[in-house]
Amino acid sequence: MAYLDTLKMDHPRLMLHEERVDRMRxxxxxxxxxxxxxxxxxxxxxxxxxxxxxxxxxxxxxRLLDVSREMVxxxxxxxxxxxxxxxxxxxxxxxxxxLQVCGFVDWNPRHFLDVAEMLHGVGVGYDWVYGLLCEKExxxxxxxxxxxxxxxxxxxxxxxxxxxxxxxxxINNWNQVCNTGIVIGALAVADKEGEVAERVLERAVSAxxxxxxQFEPDGGWFEGPIYWRFASEYTCHFLAAMNSALGHDGGLGxxxxxxxxxxxxVYMTGPSGKYFNFADGHEELIGTPQMLYMAERYGQxxxxxxxxxxxxMSETDLMYWHEGLEKLNGGRYEEAMRGVDLDKVFEPCNVVxxxxxxxxxxxxxxxxxxxxxxxxxxxxxxxxxxxxxxERFATELNADDYNAPGFFTKERYCFYRNRAEGHNTLVVxxxxxxxxxxxxxxxxxxxxxxxxxxxxxxKAELMEFKxxxxxxxxxxxxxxxxxxxxxxxxxxxxxERKAKEVVVTDWVExxxxxxxxWFMHTEAEVVLHHEGRRAILRRNGxxxxxxxxxxxxxxxHVRKAEGFDQNRTRGEKSNEGYRKLxxxxxxxxxxxxxxxxxxxx
Length: 601
What we know:
alpha+beta, Glycosyltransferase, five-stranded antiparallel β-sheet, 15 helices
């Protein structure tokens, strides 16, 4: 059966049918979510009425992406204000926005993410204001979707072996974002451009499972929570667009892991209100409206409660509104999380989350022992974050500047934030010297987990995971990332719920004596006591005690958050405001390091 055999021929057909818009209007009264989100959308739309139209610009010389994403935002703000509120001025401004970007010379196909996200915005916009378009405007916008979007997409599918087109067969978030944007564009014009739309749908729907498979078996995502956001959001847009336009999604919505993937965001969000930002990403919370879609699609109330309580509001919250949200008792988080496990290991992306409770002042630990060789990952095996009292104490540095020279080349591991010394893990026998020389001869001032050529061979192994009402403990074998300098590196994290205490235990063994550095980054004020055996970390009136329990004689030092050679790579972000708690073990062959953290009430 061809995909377009079941196409809904009328507009609007994408994402949001008129019957749901009618139900929104029915609920449009004080103290409802639909009223709150409509007010937000209308405010954004009113501001856009006074703003300039978008212009074609590549601020970094490579990407139109900021313009494409702003177009998506404008489409949903203006389009939802028009469709729900019914005021023609918003629809007419959206028509002007569409004509403007469709007049661009291209949508920057050399960086295809830009094309895909522009297709997303233009496809939805065209569909939603179709009834306002004159014949000339309709032809112009439809021609742009075909010539600037769908035909370049078909060329990429046919040349998928070329590096710049690898998204057509890749496992990372580009797959979902690009293929979803293409599908939305195709469905928007499918009634008049059936031949091209059918070809595109066949290629996109067959390519998506390559990436969707990465959600198996438990919904985890190897690129971290920020890129989970893109992967899952566009997956939900795909499912919504297909079901609204065709009445089915080709069965992709039932693939293993998708119904559980909302739990990944839940567990990767600490009680401090910050993400466990392993891999490229940042710790600040962002809008995740896909949690609303998944709450309805998969019957998971806690997804909606999490977004309402923890996520930032966005234009598409209103699009994924459903009546069940109005029965959430204000979206109370604690009620929605009642009975939900406090701890979880996500495999195979190899990330663990543990906490003392679901309350905002809980003790929380997240640890990554992921594969170092995948998209957006860092050399961070064993790194962790720690929250206590609503504050982030052990922190991961946010992603560095993507536009810095060499960031996405082999020079990626010259950036402090990407190397082991820029994370909360061990560094063994650092080499201090010229970065270029060290990189070329295979040593980037780091243990072997930092050698790029080791790539996907650097995999950790889960040895133990135990959880009960009193405590949770996880133990991982990180040796593969440190061979041959260490023949053994195992790390155990234990959280005591009632005591709000975390104990980090490391076992290291080597055939030759080595210098081992234990690092933990923080933005807290650090004061050393007991000749360095104890440290008091203070942040916003909250205190945390860190103690070196083993080995005898080991003490804390406070170091700057900088590389051993103290030189920054060109274009690298400043780490001002961060410092790191360090323990140095000189010339050891076999040792156990134990550090305990406990809160001070």
